[in-house]
Structure formats: structure tokens, C-alpha cells
Amino acid sequence: MNDEIHEIPLDEIIVSDWNVRRSEPDKDLEELAASIAKHGLLQPVVLMGEHGNPPYWLIVGQRRFLAHRDVLRRKKIRAIFAGKLNRIQASIRSLVENMTRTDLNYADAAKAITYLYRQMDRDERKVKAETGLSLQRIRQYVDIEERASPKMKGKLRSKKVTPIDVQRVLRAASGDIDKADRLLEKMERQKFTTYQKKRMVEYGEEHPHANDDKIIEEAQRPVVERTILVKLSDKARAGLEKAAQKLAMSPDEVAAQAVEDWLSRKGFISA
Predict the structure, then answer these.
(1) For 130-187, how does the pLDDT look when each residue is reduced to its tens digit (9 = 90+)?
(2) I need a labelling partner for 178 at 20 to 30 A (CA). Which of 46, 84, 138, 155 fits?
(3) Cα angle vertex 73, ends 68, 77, to 5°?
């Protein structure tokens, strides 16, 4: 990529379909524009094309572009050129740039990751090599993009539910998307505990023909939960919080899974 910065007229730039940020690109534009007006554009946008031969395609910096055009009413923007990229390379560049910045919407990230996964012969290791994401996170993105309903993706966009909860209801519904939608609504409304969510999945998988009301009823049956308090070092606690954020799980869920995996590997839990 050429790092030379150019002043490019906004009317020579087209927002590429390869830009991964699809949801709410105009969110908080006033704040971004105020920052640009005060401090200048600290990070140029990234364009694809050959300088001097417009139009150019924007692949990184959609919100910066919109702030210049729609709020600040500027005529030009500082930009660098990514060189000659094909569609896959442009998508990778846009994805990596957006994910290392502020919160890229989960549904947008899942869509972009799944696109790369399909283009790369459904080889998750190739996606990992290009993006740096863990295999578990890639699998979660692909699973949700390929199986979740539009309603579920809408809840993810609005951050009303977590990715792991979407995966739970998909498992509990045994492939019935309408049932999964109803389970998610009821689980959200009734504020299920972690145990109740786990029980919902177990019962749903064991009884694939059970309706959503029955699954919810069984998940809410009273049980005695055993709580174990474990003292963690600062290093372990930081690692636990990092894992929870990366895996979109609660710290309790990550800790329980880690303990179970360790006990299983050591032979203390039978297969």
C-alpha cells in the first residue's frame, strides 16, 4: 500500500459494497464531525483505485467520509490508496481495519467473516490466517450468520441479546427457526439465569419435538445450584475477562467451561 496522503474530492469517491460496516454508519456522526473540526482528520480514509484516475472506491473510513460530506460539508478528504485489490482482499482489509477500531456491529462482522469463509473454500484456518481471529470465534460468526433468523440478527444489532444466547436457542430448537425465535423472546423476557439457559439447551436437544412452552417450563424447574468460590490471581482474572469478552460469554460460563475441560483432559470426568 502507498502511504502517501492525498486530498481527494468527495464527489470522486464511491462507498464500496465491500465495506463491511453496514449497520448505522451515520451513528454519532455529529460527535465525530466535531472531533474532526477541532483536531483534524487524524487517520486518512483508505481508497481502492489508481490516484489520478477516478472514481475511487472507499474500503475503510465510511463514517469519516460521511462526517466530511454530510455534516462538515467539506469538498475534499485526506486519503491513502490501498493499491490493486480483488474483492476478497478488499473485504479482508475493511474487516481487519474496522475490527481493530471501535465496536463493529456483531451482525456486520458475522456477515463479513462468513463471506470470507465461503470464498476461502469454507476453510476456517485460512480465515484465521487472514484476520487473526480465533477458530472458535470464526465458527460462532459463521454459525450465527448461516442459521440465525433476521429477527435474531436484529436483536444482535441492537445488543438486546448476546451471540452465545442466539446459539443456545438455535440448539434448543433443533433447527426450528420459528421455535428458536419464540425461545429467545421468552428467555429474554423472563431473564433466565445461566443455569436455566443451559437447562433449556439440554432439554431441547433431548426432546426435539417439545414445543417452546414446554422447553421454557422445564428450564425453569427449581434446582439446587452449587456455587464454588475460587480465588484467582490478577493475571488469571484478567485472562478470564479477556476470554469472556472475546467469546461473548459471561466470566462464570468461561470459568465453568475451563474447569470442566481441564477435569476432562486429566481423566477426572468420564466421556
Answers:
(1) 877 788 888 989 999 999 999 999 898 888 888 889 999 999 999 899 999 999 999 9
(2) 138
(3) 40
